[in-house]
Amino acid sequence: MNKSVVIAGALLLAAVCALSRPAGKADPPTPWSRWTEIDGARVHYIDTAPESDLPVLLVLPGFLGSTAMFLPVTDILSREMRVVIPDLPGFGWSEAPRGGCTMDDRLTFVSAFIDRLDIGPMHLAGSSLGANIAVRFAVANPVRVKSLVLLSPFGLQGQREVVSRLERVDPLLPLVTLFVCRRLLARELEKQVRDPSELTRDILESFRRPFRSAAGRRVVVAVSRNILCSSFFDECLPLVGQPTLVLAGSEDAYRSRDMLGVLESRIPSCTTRCLEGCRHCIHLDAPADVAELIARFCAAAEP
């Protein structure tokens, strides 16, 4: 096999990974860390106020994303809300799922996780690919979701070009995951933030973790094939019944030129904000601004 093809595939996968973990015994990087078990797999999550009656904000990270990515914005939001963020199965510090990694599997996990924590009606946020999951969950569970927040959403057909090259090397993906190293991930992640110093050691570690085990690499390949490259949410947008806030950075390389306009026109009740100078990881680039916008929006959506 041509070595240059393998290397190119590895670079491409790492670039897509930056759009948005679990081998090893390292402790998760947060004082709010908790653990549960869903369908036989250990799940790591953070919960800032499990015994409070504060409004609940459930956040779904993106592809390869983890709780480590949201600590700055969580620290601010926790003053007004109970913030709950799971590491989705196979990512962050959560174990790989025993079953599949399709969109339906992700939605089933979210529902089971909410039931396990006995969370009532909540505000739901999704980042990057997590926004795709959040939109679909909100449509399928209108009573459980009060409002919807989409952070640098990825899932429109208009964004498909981002993953089109990955689709062309699909047969090589299992091999490509063997070549993804921490340095490569760091280089690609630096393109998604305004200041590379935002990328803490724990963030870089969380992105590297799934590539350290066969089970983790299986999840990366399956989510790439089943969700990242083949599951788009355009047809769901008109069905969103919740008030929706969309936040995206002006310098986000994965934001299609008309993304905000498309979302605002297709989601019945939608407000959009473009954060100047921010890249894909707006929650790292501007945590105070993002937290303020989310808190204000969710407060207005409270009954």
List the SSEs and their pairings.
Layout: H1 3-17, E1 33-38, E2 41-47, E3 56-60, H2 71-77, E4 82-86, H3 103-117, E5 122-127, H4 129-140, E6 145-151, H5 161-168, H6 173-176, H7 182-189, H8 201-208, H9 214-228, E7 244-249, H10 259-266, E8 270-275, H11 282-285, H12 287-301
Parallel strand pairs: 3-4, 3-5, 5-6, 6-7, 7-8
Antiparallel strand pairs: 1-2, 2-4
What is CATH's topology name?
Rossmann fold
User: How many extended strands?
Assistant: 8
- The CATH class label is Alpha Beta
Biggest beta-sheet profile: 8 strands, mixed
Helix content: 25-40%
* Annotated CATH architecture: 3-Layer(aba) Sandwich
Q: Low-confidence runs (pLDDT<50, min 5 residues)?
A: 14-25
Basic shape = globular
Biggest sheet strand order reads 1-2-4-3-5-6-7-8
Count of domain modules: 1
Output the CATH homologous superfamily: Alpha/Beta hydrolase fold, catalytic domain
Distance between the termini: 60 Å
In terms of structural class, how would the helical and strand content be classed? alpha/beta
H/E element string? HEEEHEHEHEHHHHHEHEHH
**Discrete helix count:** 12
* Mean pLDDT over the full residue set: 90
The proportion of strand residues reads: 15-25%
> How much is the radius of gyration in Å?
18 Å
